[in-house]
Amino acid sequence: SGTLTFSGEINLPGGYTSLNGLVLLDRAQLLGKRLSDLSGDWTLRSAPQGWSRFTVEDVEATAYDGALTGEVNIATRSRGTEYEASLSLSDMDIGAYLQEGAAVAASDAPPTRAIQGRLDGRLTLTGRIGSTMTRRGEGRVAVHDARLYHLPIMLAILRVINLAESDEKASQDARATFSISGQQLTFQELYVRDPATASLYTARANLV
Q1: pLDDT at 197
Q2: How far apart are CA 161 and CA 167, in angstroms?
């Protein structure tokens, strides 16, 4: 629910359309993730040849107790509908994010109450709707005061770098850069710091 305002012109000379406005939504989803208190400036341009572009700029929203900002573009052409997104996230609650279920579906995953920490990150992503193989992206994340051993996506990596079992209850900090190609997520650089043991772990990994 929310408010959508617009102004502009339809059926301009040559069959073109130009609209713009403001969006204010109490609840929304972006890239399949739950958002609240979303706002942004939007524009729609279209041509009679079947081309159109929908853009939302200056996006601001609350995402799992953190702040999301960015821009999203959706373009429709003869070859399909393509998207571009550039997003930044600040101080997101990792536990709240994972409680939505899909990220902890594995039968051997720990209870979500055991997962904690805060996350900052940035992501750029492009692709064609309906085709995961066209997905391309890159980004970086920084995690603070988290029990990384309990994060499903990190579990296999931390086992590879031999994080001791006695350290599972400790909180660690981490930062990483990554790229996305289709369904493959690649960590180019991954640093994990464990203050409890004064240890620094580094790793590279491909997750498919």
Answers
A1: 55
A2: 13
Count other Cβ atoms within 10 Å, centred on residue 58: 12
3-state secondary structure of 147: coil
Give the span between the Cα atoms of 152 and 84, in whole angstroms: 27
**156, containing H or E segment:** helix 152-160
What is each CA distance from 23 to 10, 154, 205, in whole angstroms? 19, 36, 39
With DSSP H G I counted as helix, E B as strand and the rest as coil, what are the percentages for the chain, rounded to 5?
A: 10, 65, 25
> How many Cα atoms are found within 13 Å in the side-chain-facing hemisphere of 197?
17
Please write the tens of the pLDDT for every residue from 114-166. 667 899 999 999 999 989 899 999 999 998 887 776 665 566 665 655 555 44
What pairs with residue 62 in β-bridges?
A: 36, 67
pLDDT tens-digit series, residues 6-52: 777 676 677 788 889 999 999 988 767 789 999 999 999 988 777 89
Taking alpha carbons only, the member of 152, 79, 75, 145 closest to residue 110 is 152
- Farthest CA pair distance, the chain: 71
